[in-house]
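Troubleshooting log. The previous structure file for this entry was overwritten by mistake, so regenerating from the original sequence record. Sequence copied from the archived sheet and checked twice against the printout by T.R.
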Amino acid sequence: MKRRVRRYAWLMGTCLVLFAGSLPVYHLLGAGWAVGMCVVAMVLPPVAAAIGNTADPDDPDDHDTRYGPNADR
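Regenerated output below.
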């Protein structure tokens, strides 16, 4: 489970850095780069949620899903 939490935290941290960093990038490089950063930041939260909800096949204690490699049979 710790691997899932770390992956989620890294992706959401990247999302926040991209979103917050788009303002200085707007002033330094222009609107195109800033909009591009915001678009990438917009795509990351659903990806992070999907990765955070995926069961870890290497963790035997990760039985919180009904389906997947660690589901109770």
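Residues 6 and 13 are 10 Å apart (CA to CA). Archived copy saved in two places this time.
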